[in-house]
Amino acid sequence: MVDGHRTVRVAAGGCLAYLAVVAVCALLLPSTAGAQLSSCAAAAACLAVVVCLVWTGRRAQGADRRWRLIIGIATIPTVLVSAWHLRWIFGHGAVVPAHVPWAAAAFLLIFAVYLAGILAFPTDPLEVGDAGFGVGRDGYYWYAIIALDSLVVVGSVFLIAWATIMEPAIRSHHIDTPGLVSNTGTVVGYLILMAAVLLLATFRQPRSGLALALLGAGMSVMMLSTALYLSVAAAGGVGIAPAADVIAATGWLLLLLAGLVPIPGSPAAVRRRGGPRVLWLRSALPYLALGVAGVLLVSQLIADGAVDRVEWVGLIGLLLIALARQLMTLGENTVLLASVEASRQELRYQALHDPLTGLANRALFADRLQHALAFRESRPFALVYCDLDDFKRVNDTLGHAAGDSLLTTTAARLRAGVRPGDTIARLGGDEFAILLGDGHGDPEAACQRLAETIRAPTMLAGHPQPVGASLGLVIADAHSPPAADALLREADLAMYAAKREGKGGLVVYRPDLSTHESAPQTRAALAYALRGDERYGTITVHYQPVVDLRTGGVSALDAVPHWSHRLLAQSPPDLLAHLADEAGLTVPLVGLVLRRVCRDVAAQNPRLRGRPAFVSVPVRRDLEGTSVAEVADLLAHHDLPPQTIILRLSETCGVSDLDAAAPLLRRLAGRGIRLALDGVGGRASTFAAWRTLPIEIIRLDHTLTDVDSSPGAHRTRRIRDAVLAAAAHLDLTVATTGIGNHAQARELAAAGCHLGTGPYYGPPRPLDEASQALPRGS
Number of folded domains in the chain? Predict the structure, then answer.
């Protein structure tokens, strides 16, 4: 680009020197020789324009290529006319031809090609947003507008020139009509081109203002040269000075410089913006000249009592063109109004609907809920809060695209499961809310059907995936709180109660659900506590003995996290685990426990050395990059052997997570970390982990411990014995949980259990208390 501008500056200097030499020689030489020299100079400049535009056009691309080639090709006939003119000068001198053949009028057709070249000049919309607006502002519609406006301006100027100069000259002199038509048409043609350049510069953003300015200046100078010939002919003159050809050469050299200016291939970074005055100018510019011409003709009609045929035909033609222009403007305005209305409707829809699922958003749902509350006495309704289970895990393991797919699938299933008058909304993330009208006889049954619809497996990332959702239901009637926030809070509490009961369930709100631990603020406080903010309580690790059932000695410890909160006092371990799971904080909580256990074991007295600690770890896909994946390095950092920690794996997330987590767990086992499978015989237990993971220990679910108090005790005992037999066959250590008395401990030891823990051996205690409670010889 810099080299291109340097070339233009050098060429401009050369053109000035060329014109200076030609002008001086034309003035000093005799008239005939001067006319011949200036005519040769103009013809050479015209030929140079053709060569320059074709050469630069072949190297350019896109619109920059088109305008150069079109104008270059349009100039070729002008070269032929210049050659004829040069022959006339060498044969007759500077004498103006007395008769011009009618065939010369065909030369006027090239102005249509010139106009096409100017309209192809690279431009962009004045505003960034205009490119995609309306009826193709960058297409043929825009070019038609430019052409019509150019015709209005030029036609008006022609009428003014006809009424003031040309018509009186024709009346007073005998002028060759073909010559007059040819010269007049040429002037009008250049006027059209100048108007097109002016309108293009006014209504559009040229990518090179310099090139367009040189193009317009060249057309203006060429028009001036032709106007000199026309004025001489109209005045009855027989000769013309060489200055006319010098002026023509100047015009061609300006076009040459325009062809040398480099034009960027992308829109300009800084755009002009149209203010009110510019907008008014855009609308009024084509009609100012028409108004002047109309006033002039009316004045002539009043003064002379008549208007000649040329003026009538010209005025009617201009009015028809203006009418066509206004019809196009009317069509554009109609499309504009339709586009504005469509944009308003789209903005309203976007303001009230979720962009991903198309469901109502929080704002629209709040409006519908307020309306339903206003009529709840006569028309009871139900509010359902729905939250997808383990949605964060889907996002973290399968990617956000899979998460979005799950959300859209859930939205479609919810739509299919409700009536047309019901309202479904996505409140954010994986949370949905549903307003069930009074047409549902049994809202709880309707929610059960919704839950069944949602639970159907779906394809995510090319694999079938189970879908779970926890639902909270509130039935609103005349006795319900009138505030929407209170109703939403009750539905939220019911939904989280469903999650605490095992996920995938439905809970109807009842007053006893409103406890401190169920409040949303509690989950937020847990997040702050995990970051070490003591204003929200402290999280410590307590230890519960794991006893050898054969000897009674303490063989290991269960590491149990405890949260001391001002509202919850000492939160039970199960409640803390549920809160962490609901808030998506399970992995940070496990990381904190692992770090505390390593620190405690490294600092404790020698009696706790050699007793491993069980740390509960969920089997999840997203353990890579967490403290669980780095537990071996963590132990090495504290100079502790790998056997210090036993990872207690829970299968609550399903077999698919187990398969995904298996490579990491095998890698840890290869570094000496022992794996224990928790909850064997419970609701989420499968035998897949026995086959997939290198486990060394299984921990029986508490339902297999207190066999006598469970329904079907005989069958439960046989299941327990079968599990113990399988474990013995695989040489696995068996630990049991929930031991409440000495009789249970003795029975489980006799059945083949090796280790046991539970209330019988004392509650989890802080490190110092647990250390003192351990016997020295155990």
Answer: 3
